[in-house]
């Protein structure tokens, strides 16, 4: 079972690239972030023509997450996180697909630091950890996939000093992420690349892609039941180099059936 995550950076703008990737790699499940469309603007017909069913949680112009399943419609479990009823951002959706619990996550960026956006980011991470604990208690194979907007370690960025003041690398961000690892979740990509040097994001500016000046912020966290089935985890890096590409590359795990 191949489960992928892809910050598409606007599903309408990147639809040809998305369909191209789905057709060429055929993931069993694809978690999307930053779809940047209201619910009624989601291109479900194009997705279905590519062979996928979908659920989504949209928002006009910003955020938005979705889960796609090949040949099926994901069984929605929940959308949004508890803890802040006034939070209207579309950043979390969770479903069951072929016996695996899967969440698509778009964590807040948090810049500038300090400030209310960073405070919101840290609160959101605490809410995510609380939801993860509820999933953990169910003892199901689970994959929490998405754009976490956290660079966990210095080895996950081309030049640590270049990002030192960014919300993605602040001690509070890293501590919150590592707390989930301490809870027992497995960072799938890090488990296959323990020395780092593997990027999932390259900025459109500063010639970042040609210079390979990237960093790793797209993660798939596995519960013990899923980690026991882990075969591989990699980045589909070539898709970042395509015409009108997202600034993220897809990341995937393969689990034994």
Automatic annotation (TrEMBL):
<feature type="site" description="Interaction with DNA substrate">
    <location>
        <position position="248"/>
    </location>
</feature>
<feature type="binding site">
    <location>
        <position position="34"/>
    </location>
    <ligand>
        <name>Mg(2+)</name>
    </ligand>
</feature>
<comment type="similarity">
    <text>Belongs to the DNA repair enzymes AP/ExoA family.</text>
</comment>
<feature type="binding site">
    <location>
        <position position="247"/>
    </location>
    <ligand>
        <name>Mg(2+)</name>
    </ligand>
</feature>
<keyword id="KW-0378">Hydrolase</keyword>
<feature type="binding site">
    <location>
        <position position="7"/>
    </location>
    <ligand>
        <name>Mg(2+)</name>
    </ligand>
</feature>
<dbReference type="GO" id="GO:0006281">
    <property type="term" value="P:DNA repair"/>
</dbReference>
<feature type="active site" description="Proton acceptor">
    <location>
        <position position="248"/>
    </location>
</feature>
<dbReference type="GO" id="GO:0046872">
    <property type="term" value="F:metal ion binding"/>
</dbReference>
<dbReference type="InterPro" id="IPR005135">
    <property type="entry name" value="Endo/exonuclease/phosphatase"/>
</dbReference>
<feature type="binding site">
    <location>
        <position position="248"/>
    </location>
    <ligand>
        <name>Mg(2+)</name>
    </ligand>
</feature>
<feature type="binding site">
    <location>
        <position position="149"/>
    </location>
    <ligand>
        <name>Mg(2+)</name>
    </ligand>
</feature>
<feature type="binding site">
    <location>
        <position position="147"/>
    </location>
    <ligand>
        <name>Mg(2+)</name>
    </ligand>
</feature>
<keyword id="KW-0460">Magnesium</keyword>
<feature type="active site" description="Proton donor/acceptor">
    <location>
        <position position="147"/>
    </location>
</feature>
<protein>
    <submittedName>
        <fullName>Exodeoxyribonuclease III</fullName>
        <ecNumber>3.1.11.2</ecNumber>
    </submittedName>
</protein>
<dbReference type="Pfam" id="PF03372">
    <property type="entry name" value="Exo_endo_phos"/>
</dbReference>
<feature type="site" description="Transition state stabilizer">
    <location>
        <position position="149"/>
    </location>
</feature>
<feature type="active site">
    <location>
        <position position="106"/>
    </location>
</feature>
<feature type="domain" description="Endonuclease/exonuclease/phosphatase">
    <location>
        <begin position="4"/>
        <end position="248"/>
    </location>
</feature>
<keyword id="KW-0464">Manganese</keyword>
<dbReference type="InterPro" id="IPR037493">
    <property type="entry name" value="ExoIII-like"/>
</dbReference>
<dbReference type="GO" id="GO:0008311">
    <property type="term" value="F:double-stranded DNA 3'-5' DNA exonuclease activity"/>
</dbReference>
<feature type="site" description="Important for catalytic activity">
    <location>
        <position position="218"/>
    </location>
</feature>
<dbReference type="InterPro" id="IPR036691">
    <property type="entry name" value="Endo/exonu/phosph_ase_sf"/>
</dbReference>
<dbReference type="InterPro" id="IPR004808">
    <property type="entry name" value="AP_endonuc_1"/>
</dbReference>
<keyword id="KW-0479">Metal-binding</keyword>
